[in-house]
Amino acid sequence: MGPEKAGKTRRGQGRRTAVPWVLLGLWVAVLAAVGPFAAKLADVQHDRAVDYLPASADSTQVAKIEDRLPGGEATELVLVYHRDGGLRAADRATAARQVADVTRANPLTGTPEAVPSRDGSTLMYAVASTAPGTDEKKRDAFVNDVRDVARGTDGMSVDVGGPGALATDAGEVYNSLGGPLLYTTVGVVAVLLILIYRSPLLWLVPLAVAGVADYLSMGVAYGLHQAFGTSVSGQSSGVMTILVFGAGTDYALLIISRYREELRRVERPYDAMKVALRGCGPAVLASSGTVAAGLLCLLAADLNSSRGMGPTGTVGVLCALLAMLTLLPAVLVLLGRRVFWPLVPAYGAEPKARRSLFAAMGSSAGRRPLVVLASGAVLLGALALGTLNLPGPLKQQDSFVHRPDSVAAMETLARAYPGKGTQPITVITPTGRADATLAAVRGHTGVASAERGRSGGNWTEISVIARGAPQSAAETATIKALRADLGGSYVGGPSAQQIDLQDTNARDRLVVVPIVLASVLLILVALLRSLVAPLLLVAAVVAVWGAALGIGGLVFGPLFGFEGTDPGLGLLSFVFLVALGVDYGIFLMHRMREESLSGAEPAAAALTALRTTGGVIASAGLVLAATFAVLTNMGLLQLVELGFVISVGVLLDTFLVRTYLVTSASVALGRKVWWPGGLSRKPDTEEAGRREPVAVG
What we know:
Elements (H helix, E strand, L loop, with lengths): L2 H36 L10 H4 L5 H11 L6 E8 L6 H17 L8 E3 L5 E8 L6 H14 L7 E5 L1 H35 L6 H25 L5 H30 L5 H28 L7 H32 L21 H11 L1 H16 L20 H12 L8 E6 L3 H9 L4 E10 L2 E8 L6 H13 L4 E3 L1 H35 L3 H24 L13 H29 L4 H28 L7 H33 L15 H6 L7
Antiparallel strand pairs: 1-3, 1-4, 2-3, 5-7, 5-8, 6-7
């Protein structure tokens, strides 16, 4: 070896050693920079119903105007004293004493008065304070102070309910998600990676890198909130963590699988990683870009919580992508081949020949493709009919997995005061028309009582009690009638907020769903250079969404006993299943295109693509489904339902749609699957063999 060649070799070796260490140093610097901001994400998280609503909603306007009235926004509670068989004189005396203690300890808007039930079993005291304002921590402190004073004795139960207590209980559940959600997700991913890799060390690498990406995403999400006012909720931050670990681990599986393959062909780990990234990098970039584009379509939503989840989820996906394309390769290269112990891929060795499950599945789909395709379509269609059995809209008090104090209070009130509203409706009207508005409200058939409240800034507050129970059909009809009759006034309050949530979600589905479909379709057309293949993938993921939602309808009420369905379930599950489902479709169809470019016949290309990518896609699907399944262990029903539908959808997509339906459709269509691209016409074999394919997986 000459001096010049030896010098080039030494420089190449130095570069191989330096690049991974430089990347590690850059990541340390980035984490040090975002660290102070990541810890602040929980401080800007808001989970009040009114924070989710658009500015144009009636209930949002009521909340804003109330905040400008003397004393600001009021935190409203209901103290419920109950004894089966009837309250005793001592019980009433205890209740009066405790309410007096609450009044002395807190600045209230008025003196609470006892409202007894007809059967004498229950006393209800309405308590309100403007001291907490919109500060959620002060609200929680006020609610907990009241609960410390109002305690049951000797068989008499005392529950603190009302809008303020419900909000506090929901906030406690959201605040408790961070730790359990992260630990459970890490544990689930760790178990699956150990089973997949069968190595005592390798599983730690992608898991640690995903943890770094999660920390980075928290800092970036906080920066987005500060710079652009992006809405951050407990739901969006939880889903961001799920996406980081789920999508990030998927990318890691693809990269490590290709890296292991190249280590048998390339001597040095650095060079093997370069080849691996060159081969699977385009597919990882394309799939993550598709997921990000689908999530960003949520920016078109009118609901603040949905709109905020778009950029927050995108941050999670892109941080996971960045970490898996830079930090993961650097760590793997520095650890060398020994990271795969005991199944170390030796240079020059051939992988052990194994019977491929996916080869067998592909062969069965390839023998009778039309029969397989029709059977799968009928099965998905039948499952989708389950959507007709989905429970009605989820009531606020039914949204908890474990019944808190506030829900117990509302249930007691519903039994003790049948046919009577126990949760106020708030009407905000111009002060000049306050008397006329009050008279009109009192004259309404659905109103039990109405009282004039605070005035300020040319607005007056009217507190209304409906004849119907909270969030009942009767109360809903009363709220809608008041809004229709009281022109120039706003009707809000907890029940009105739930109505606005349902209406806004319905509007968002009509707007966002077509945008998601169009954007994903355009990306697939550009990537696959075809129209038929993208339409096939999009139709497949839409069918998966319908079937997964239908399975939810079959089990939510009859099996799980859920009382309702979250209004946002349809839209959010659609966005995630379409974006993530197309993600796997890219892996499969890109490899199919590669085989076709190399001259393979359509059926052979489809079956080879399934055989070579099926294992990685199955592993990735299991990891992603398991991470979203973590949400089913959380304390709020909307998270449980979302996690269930997405997990079931990912499993359907991985083991039924990708394996059988897309493969059988591709075999049945032949070259037409690539229409109108060049691959749809029979190419010259010699010319096709000279084309350089883009390797995937």
